[in-house]
Write a structure and sequence with these properties.
alpha/beta, 48% helix, Rossmann fold, two-stranded antiparallel ribbon, 174 residues, five-stranded parallel β-sheet, 7 strands
């Protein structure tokens, strides 16, 4: 496990899981939301984003969390391990609402400074419809990659914890 993609619905726990996985494995973690959003929620221009994706996946080791469908194939092709956090819809909705309350007028640790937490109806609808709209195509894509990649589909917080618990702790670099 050297190049890991972590994907799933908003509120699935991608950033938290990726941070914990990075602590456990010693792999560097890259949160796509932090890389995409500039202060004031300004998105990175597409040409810069594409160049950044090529640069990131060209590195020897990484964990990259986030979806960003337009460039997902670049990350999936470069990854040796794909982890899909396939959490229940009600849990994802609960988590995005909780996150909004916890980080009211603050920026989450996995975002760029100057991007205070917000929650809009479009995002809520995307999370709500993820299982019926985005998930089927993603599962199809993963089934096509199955023989070439190591793929884990984790369907509950318990499965996430069990996955992390079975990993050896990385040797300290101190």
């Amino acid at each position: 496990m050297n190049k890991v993609v972590v994907i799933g619905s908003g509120g699935a726990g991608k950033s938290t899981f990726s941070r914990q996985l990075g602590e456990r494995t010693g792999l560097p973690v890259h949160h796509l939301d932090a890389l995409n959003w500039r202060p004031g929620w300004e998105p990175t221009p597409k040409d810069e984003w594409d160049a950044l994706m090529r640069q990131l996946v060209g590195k020897e080791t990484w964990i990259i969390d986030g979806n960003y469908g337009r460039t997902m194939d670049v990350r999936l092709a470069a990854a040796d391990t794909i982890i899909f956090l396939d959490m229940p819809r009600h849990l994802c909705i609960y988590r995005i609402i909780k996150r909004r309350i916890m980080f009211h007028n603050k920026t989450r640790p996995d975002l760029t400074p100057g991007c205070p937490e917000h929650l809009d109806l479009k995002f809520v609808k995307w999370v709500w419809s993820y299982r019926s709209v985005s998930r089927p195509a993603l599962l199809q894509k993963l089934s096509e990659l199955n023989s070439q990649k190591t793929i884990y589909i984790l369907r509950s917080p318990r499965e996430v914890q069990q996955f992390l618990d079975q990993l050896p702790v990385a040797k300290s670099t101190i």
